[in-house]
Amino acid sequence: MAKEKFTGVKGMNDMLPQDAPIWQYVQKTCVDVLSSYGYQEIRTPILENTRVFTRGVGEVTDIVEKEMYSFTDSMNGDQLTLRPECTSAVVRAVNEHNLLYGTTQRLWYCGPMFRHERPQRGRYRQFHQLGAEALGMAGPDIDAEIIMMLARMWKALGVGPVKLEMNTLGAQEERQKHREALIAYFEAHKDQLDEDALRRLYTNPLRILDTKNPDMQGLVDAAPKLLDYLGEESRAFLSRLEELVSSAGIEYSINPRLVRGLDYYNHTVFEWITDKLGAQGTICGGGRYDPLVEMLGGRPAPGVGFAMGMERVIELMREVGQVPKASQTDVYVLHHGGESQAKAMLLAETMRDRGIRVVTHPGEASIKSQMKKADASGAEFAVFATEDELAQGTVGIKALRAHEHAPFAEQTLVATAEAADKVAEALAALHR
Ligand code: HAM
């Protein structure tokens, strides 16, 4: 019988061990920044009741109309969906657990999201977002703080210049007026609308502005602008945000065409874009979503947040050569099997007590072949717990990488009891 070959699901990637250091580095770097602004982690399930997203993200969005992995739970008939984004899920959890009762919340999350899109570079069906939501705070100071926090993350990650585009979607009544004007305008030019636009004309005309159809660009460019429908308050909100962002020295442009693909936004929306990743250059998107908490059954409370695409950020770091070299192993312990293996394993334990990352050679092999493994492991030091050395109460330590003035550049014998301390000192010297 022919052996069956198994492959992963299209558009869903394995993260292989050689990629683990960069994934961990990106998450840690961002979380350090988030913590410095008072954000705490929240984890919600990957499955939610479908209503959370149809209500939260909006019925007439690409995500809900054609990208969700939804199914009926065969055990009880529940309608469930693999989360396509996390803002709605976080708000659902915050409401369910009353986390906004008389207080505010600053929350972050990181994990897989699922959208049934056409896979291509930077666009996957399972992808990962690192995001944050600030809930219960109404002012543009919080929007500005989020922008400042993101600018700090890009700097810490070393992704190079990324362009910030901002826009405002105004307040609900203003949007309503603009919407009516848009419908009237597009009705008058119905013959120029494509199928998608015709379908959205009465359900979500704002999204027509987002069209990628080149034949409709002229029409869309001349369409009524929301900016012209904004009242005093919305204008003041945007100008305060601009003022705070500028005074932090962050460059931005206002893009009146930026409407975002999710329906819960009002006032501020923003995206960070790079020109180094081709068509999928948006590494991060977000904005204010004051209606959402109430839409998902909570007492009205404002919210604002963002999510970055981890795959895109990592791809960008690779493009600009910012991949940190991180070895996973500090020390490789070699031995002669038998009694020396037992001692090697105990010595490894004393090193781990000091936080050193140690691999002890598994099984038995010649020292030459163990050395090859030691070298390939990426370890900084080899420790020889071989019979001769152990018999004298010593082990040998040798640096495996060429560093200037590296300790143990030559193989050196040290007392077995002191070996863990010596290695710890040597590692500290390397990392100084
Ligand atoms: P979004 O713009 O749909 O916003 O997604 C945020 C980011 O996730 C995008 O800018 C992109 O980097 C990444 N992303 C989206 N789809 C894919 C995909 N198929 N493959 C790879 N990366 C992708 C949201 O999801 C909102 N929840 C953001 C937010 C949080 N707004 C307020 N709070």
Automatic annotation (TrEMBL):
It is an enzyme of class 6 (ligase). Signal peptide: none annotated. SUPFAM superfamilies: Class II aaRS ABD-related (SSF52954), Class II aaRS and biotin synthetases (SSF55681). One of its GO terms (biological process) is histidyl-tRNA aminoacylation. It is found in: Cytoplasm. Coiled coil: none annotated. Its EC number is 6.1.1.21. Homodimer. This is Histidine--tRNA ligase. It comes from Sutterella wadsworthensis HGA0223. The gene is hisS.
